[in-house]
């Protein structure tokens, strides 16, 4: 029946029988390309290969009945007996293997292996590689399954990534799962967003979500959980972890462990306890007890809301060289205290130095201040160096006294500014008089 078609090669009984204007086709085998009319650049090899193809172009069908039902699907490659047999309109598919993609009538799939993707009907953008890989998939999309029987029970699960023999073998409708390794995720059926990495690493059956198992035969059985292999040690900052969790930081004396929502300000959930967590000489976290030795200091303190309170108003000594604090003092620190903020309580306003700015406050004449400095070696009202060494410094009183001196200095400065202003005004008046005198002298000289 060929009329204007050219560049065609038809070999076999009834091959290209209905071709009209199709060009550059190669049909080899009985009934190969039988109904092709205007399709071009096709290669059909095998008994009834591309039998129903009519107008579709750029297809390659190799094998008995491969691409048998294809009509308008273009740019497909089907290699293997019965491969892509049911496809009619799907394009850009690649099926390689006996019965690969047999039922597919969709586009953009890649099925490689014996019966790979055999049951797929409308699923798109899938890649199945291996014997029986994705064999049961019908309408699942965007899946990648590599390995013998990988995802072989998946029907409508979408966006799964299974690599390894029988990986994801039980999955039916679960989606967005990642299973890597032989038999990985073998029990997952309908669970979503799960990850299993390692030989027989598994997600138990059920509708688990966001469950992760990593390691040889690691198993996770709860949603939103991460499980490592039973004998695994986790190292953070180290390549040779020696405990279940081994943390190493780059900074000395820091654990690297932070509890965001459990801080020193958090209320205690268990009170009246004598056990606590601490570290041994190797940095291992161990359970300690205030009753297991001579250290019973914890018994002297209790939690009062968000505060740690001394039970009997006891004093605290930090450091060596002193056995008790002076009267009316409750804390001694031998080597000092480093802090980012200090707040000292002032009992009433009279103890602060704003009285300097009150009306009637009399400033000591600077001549008397100078005389006091020459005699005593320090400002009036402040302790001498020997007094500070002997008696220490009351921070609140000293701050108030220092502020008093600063405020007095401010008043001296204001007074000096006033005197300077008066002097400038007087100088200006004198300059004006001098100018007038110069003018008069000049007039007298000019009259002569």
In short:
With 448 residues, the chain is α/β, with parallel strands linked by helices.
Radius of gyration: 47 Å
Q: Which stretches are poorly predicted, pLDDT < 50 over at least 5 residues? A: none
Mean pLDDT across residues: 88
Following the backbone from N to C, one meets helices and strands in this order, namely EEEEEEEEEEEEEEEEEEEEEEEEHHH
Shape: elongated
Sheet having the most strands? 14 strands, parallel
Helix content: 10-25%
Question: Could you characterize what this model shows?
Answer:
By secondary structure, the chain is of the alpha/beta class. The chain has a domain at 349-447. It contains three helices and 24 strands. A hairpin with a 5-residue loop joins strand 19 and strand 20 (285-289). The chain is elongated.
Quickly list its features.
24 strands; 448 residues; 14-stranded parallel β-sheet; alpha/beta
What is the topology?
Blueprint: E1 9-11, E2 26-28, E3 43-45, E4 60-62, E5 77-79, E6 94-96, E7 110-112, E8 127-129, E9 144-146, E10 161-163, E11 178-180, E12 195-197, E13 202-203, E14 212-214, E15 219-220, E16 226-228, E17 234-236, E18 245-247, E19 275-279, E20 285-289, E21 301-304, E22 307-310, E23 316-318, E24 331-333, H1 366-376, H2 385-391, H3 395-447
Parallel strand pairs: 1-2, 2-3, 3-4, 4-5, 5-6, 6-7, 7-8, 8-9, 9-10, 10-11, 11-12, 12-14, 13-15, 14-16, 17-18, 23-24
Antiparallel strand pairs: 19-20, 21-22
């Amino acid at each position: 029946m060929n009329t204007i078609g050219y560049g065609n090669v038809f070999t076999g009984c009834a091959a290209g029988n209905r071709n009209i204007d199709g060009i550059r086709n190669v049909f080899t085998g009985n009934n190969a390309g039988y109904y092709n009319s205007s399709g071009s650049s096709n290669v059909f090899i095998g008994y009834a290969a591309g039998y129903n193809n009519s107008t579709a172009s750029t297809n390659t069908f190799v094998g008995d009945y491969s691409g048998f039902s294809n009509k308008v699907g273009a740019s497909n490659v089907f290699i293997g007996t019965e491969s892509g047999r049911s496809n009619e309109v799907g394009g850009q598919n690649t099926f390689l293997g006996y019965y690969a993609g047999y039922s597919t009538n969709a586009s953009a799939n890649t099925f490689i292996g014996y019966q790979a993707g055999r049951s797929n009907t409308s699923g798109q953008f899938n890649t199945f590689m291996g014997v029986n890989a994705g064999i049961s998939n019908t309408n699942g999309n965007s899946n990648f399954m590599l390995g013998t029987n990988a995802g072989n029970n998946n029907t409508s699960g979408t966006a799964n990534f299974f690599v390894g023999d029988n990986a994801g073998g039980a999955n039916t409708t679960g989606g967005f799962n990642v299973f890597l390794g032989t038999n990985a995720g073998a029990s997952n059926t309908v669970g979503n967003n799960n990850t299993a990495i390692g030989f027989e690493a598994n997600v138990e059956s059920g509708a688990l979500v966001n469950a992760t198992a990593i390691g040889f035969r690691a198993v996770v059985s709860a949603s939103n959980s991460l499980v490592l292999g039973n004998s695994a040690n986790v190292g953070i900052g180290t390549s040779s972890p020696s405990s279940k969790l081994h943390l190493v930081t780059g900074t000395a004396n820091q654990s690297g462990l932070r509890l965001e929502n459990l801080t020193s300000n958090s209320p205690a959930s268990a009170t009246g306890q004598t056990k606590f967590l601490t570290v041994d000489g190797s940095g291992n976290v161990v359970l300690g007890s205030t009753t297991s030795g001579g250290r019973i200091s914890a018994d002297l303190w209790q939690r009062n809301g968000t505060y740690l309170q001394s039970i009997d108003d006891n004093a605290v000594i930090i450091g060596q060289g002193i056995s008790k604090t002076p009267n009316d003092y409750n804390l001694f620190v031998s080597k000092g205290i480093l802090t980012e903020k200090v707040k000292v309580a002032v009992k009433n306003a009279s103890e602060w130095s704003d009285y300097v700015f009150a009306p009637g406050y009399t400033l000591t004449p600077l001549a008397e201040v100078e005389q006091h400095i020459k005699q005593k070696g320090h400002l009036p009202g402040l302790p001498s160096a020997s007094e500070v060494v002997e008696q220490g410094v009351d921070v609140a009183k000293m701050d108030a006294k220092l502020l008093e001196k600063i405020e007095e200095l401010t008043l001296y400065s204001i007074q000096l500014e006033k005197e300077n202003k008066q002097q400038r005004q007087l100088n200006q008046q004198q300059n004006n008089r001098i100018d007038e005198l110069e003018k008069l002298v000049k007039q007298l000289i000019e009259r002569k």
